[in-house]
Design brief:
Chain lengths: 208, 424
């Protein structure tokens, strides 16, 4: 079984940094190496991939592949290719007030591309992360909560650069994905893999 | 957006055989065989051999290394041979193959993304082109339609205008007819009254003649007859009757002559008896117009005719007569009493010039350039149609001529017409 999680968001919002941070934080066992496919001036052109491998008590092998999309507007075709058949999306927003318009445009682009690849944003597991909380001049947390609270979408403030709340974001998305596929794949009932165990296995922290 | 999406799905499960081809692998395997490897083998995750060169028979040690696809082991590389560098050769070959896998994946994604973008752009261009072609067709149709509509409407308007001009001509003729009827009615009135009187007189003559015949038949004496006849003569006032008869007949003949002349003028003016393609005697035509307007022109009006000799020109005399009549009518309306109308005609070069100068109040400068405009009138509503000078303009330009209206500073209006001697 393969699950595909996608880190979406505007250019320079820290999607790759999230993956790098996850790679550094999480235990070596059960995950593959981070593949960073080509960058130009530190900007993702294709995508980054961080794969996780786990086995359910039933023996079911589960691969969780976490991708980032290129954030720059011009790489829309690649974004669509990455987004196809995604099982969950983490939207990484840039907290800086100056980036609000870019966040909005990128989320709009996400909605449009989801529709294009035949995914329903209402039903797709989705978490939002407001990254770069370490920077000054960021959107107030109350404002973020006021905006996103009513949508029911889990929102995390984070600082990927400082590895702060990166694992929480990933864990929340993993939990939502479990909820979404459990009914279909009967992970708990047939394969003996409960939600807690699933999330815990994906977020085991490595030894310091 | 056409919604074109790359067929390539990032993260789709792929096997090693999907990513690597003979062209990628065979040269590498052959290359390692040349540096002392006796057998090289690549198997997929299920253990199925995909590529193999050399033979295990030669013996030696085997090095086995994993091959990865998106971080996952998808196959194994086995290298058999002798020598201390075997491990290095195996590592180098595994690195080569793994790099090939990553690069091939990138190439597949790029190619797909590229063709998706190209297809989409091409599709969008085709769409745009189709839309443009469609809207161009619409515009062209609209334009053609518009032109046609405008033509139709212009034709209708022109016809309506021509009908109105005709009506205006008819209206002038109608007014003329009313005036003429009055002119004819006067002589007809006294002619009729004279005839009634003559009827009575004739009866008295009959009575007298009857008296003579009966008395002569009875054989009366001449003296008696003479006496009785004288009494009867006196009784019937035949002296007076006899002297009156002459007057009555002269008057009636005169009246009848007047009617005949009026009818002749009218016929002459309207040129009803003439076939088309006639000739126009300008001076005679102005006189005809003046004559049929005799009743209309005030008695105190002074008419000055400065006619020069003018050759006849080809054309419809009725139309020009109508034009002259309209101009004279305007002069009379401008100056109901004390009118002095000077009519000049001359011929010079290839043109005939006719001018009508009145001593009326003139035309205000601001409306002077509008007087030929159809329906433009300064008269009260219902008093003028605004077509009088439009008819004149129509007739004159129809002759290939031109017309100008000028108002000299010392008053009055001059309508000057220029007509070509020979029409194009």
């Amino acid at each position: 079984m393969v699950l595909k999680l996608v880190y979406y968001g505007p250019a320079m919002s820290g999607k790759t940094t999230n993956l790098l941070s996850l790679h550094d934080l999480l235990a070596r066992e059960g995950r593959g190496d981070l593949m960073v496919l080509d960058t130009a001036d530190d900007r993702t052109i294709y995508f980054d991939l961080l794969p996780f491998f786990l086995t359910a008590p039933s023996g079911l092998k589960i691969k969780v592949k976490v991708y980032t999309v290129p954030g720059q507007v011009r790489h829309d075709a690649t974004r669509k290719a990455v987004l196809q058949r995604a099982d969950g999306v983490a939207f990484i927003a840039d907290s800086q007030t100056a980036q609000s318009a870019n966040n909005f445009a990128s989320f709009d682009n996400l909605e449009k591309n989801l529709a294009l690849v035949g995914l329903d944003i209402e039903r797709l597991p989705l978490v939002v992360q407001f990254n770069k909380r370490d920077l000054p001049d960021v959107v107030a947390e109350e404002d973020i909560l006021r905006t996103w609270g009513p949508t029911g979408v889990p929102v995390f403030t984070a600082s990927a650069l400082n590895s702060w709340r990166v694992v929480e974001t990933f864990g929340a998305l993993a939990g939502l994905v479990y909820d979404a596929i459990d009914g279909r794949c009967r992970l708990g009932a047939v394969h003996g893999l409960q939600r807690d165990a699933f999330v815990r296995r994906l977020t085991v922290r490595g030894e310091e | 957006m056409t919604g074109e999406v790359a067929r390539y799905v990032v993260g789709e499960e792929r096997r090693l055989a999907d990513i690597l081809s003979d062209a990628d692998v065979v040269p590498i395997i052959r290359g390692v065989l040349r540096v002392g490897v006796t057998e090289a083998l690549i198997a997929d995750a299920a253990g199925t051999t995909l590529w193999r060169e050399g033979s295990a028979a030669a013996g030696g040690i085997a090095e086995e290394l994993p091959l990865y696809l998106e971080g996952e082991e998808v196959g194994r590389l086995l290298v058999r041979g002798e020598g201390g560098s075997l491990r290095d050769v195996a590592l180098l070959m595994a690195d080569l193959l793994n790099t090939l896998v990553v690069n091939n994946l990138k190439r597949m994604l790029t190619t797909e993304a590229h063709s998706a973008v190209v297809d989409q752009s091409y599709g969008e261009l085709l769409d745009t082109n189709r839309r443009l072609a469609r809207s161009e067709a619409n515009y062209r149709e609209l334009a053609e339609h518009l032109e046609q509509k405008v033509e139709e409407r212009s034709r209708e308007l022109k016809q309506a205008y021509l009908r109105l001009l005709e009506q205006e001509k008819m209206a002038s003729v109608g007014q003329l007819a009313a005036g003429v009827a009055h002119e004819i009615n006067n002589p007809l009135g006294f002619i009729t009254s004279n005839l009634y009187t003559l009827q009575k007189y004739a009866a008295r003559f009959m009575t007298m003649l009857d008296f003579y015949r009966t008395t002569f038949d009875k054989g009366y004496d001449c003296k008696v007859i003479a006496l009785q006849a004288a009494a009867k003569w006196r009784e019937m006032k035949l002296d007076h009757v006899c002297s009156d008869v002459e007057d009555l007949i002269v008057q009636s003949i005169d009246g009848a002559e007047r009617v005949r002349r009026i009818v002749a003028d009218l016929k002459g003016f309207s040129h009803v008896d003439e076939t088309s393609g006639g000739e126009v005697e300008i001076n005679a035509e102005i006189d005809r117009a003046l004559r049929v307007m005799e009743h209309y022109i005030p008695r105190d009006a002074e008419l000055v005719r400065n006619y020069r000799e003018i050759p006849a020109i080809a054309g419809n005399p009725a139309l020009l007569g109508q034009a002259f009549l309209n101009i004279i009518q305007n002069a009379v309306q401008a100056m109901p009493s004390g009118l002095r109308l000077v009519i000049d005609t001359s011929c010079g070069g290839a043109a005939i010039r006719v001018s009508f100068a009145d001593n009326g109040p003139g035309i205000p400068a601001e409306v002077r350039n509008r007087v030929f405009e159809p329906f433009y009138t300064t008269r009260e509503v219902g008093k003028g149609t605004g077509l009088g000078l439009a008819v004149v303009y129509d007739v004159v330009t129809g002759y290939g001529g031109s017309i100008e209206v000028a108002c000299p500073p010392d008053g009055g209006t001059i309508v000057a017409i220029t007509l070509p001697l020979r029409r194009e």
